[in-house]
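Data card: per-record layout.
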Amino acid sequence: MPNRGAVMEPHGSTHRAGPAPRLDVKTPCLYHGGVKLLNVRLGPEDARRAAALRKDGVPVSHVVREAIRTAYERRPGGRGRGRTASAIMAEIYREHPDPPGRPRAPRAPRDRRAVRRAIRTRLVRRRV
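The structure for this 128-residue chain is written out next.
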């Protein structure tokens, strides 16, 4: 429900108006005290991507909300702070998989014991 007697300012703040309540937006039913409007300037490449998402039926607002939630969880001191190292690494591997056709490493990078042995071997070779 719109805030009666208030005029919406460009950044979501309101001030008391005269006796005629009005909102200076095209869709007053969408704006009330609990909803903030966020304007984002996009470069040409991001604008093209947003248009392609919209064309495919993906609501860009959902993409923005999810990006905000993800960034909030990842920030230092955020709710995601209690994650284990293995959970963080699993997320990194999921988001950044090895490119197809890349030759396999001689050891499994996720096998910490094998990696530890490889590092120790290299360090011992350098000392000698």
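Known properties of this structure: The radius of gyration is 25 Å. The longest helix spans residues 112-127.

See the next section for split statistics.
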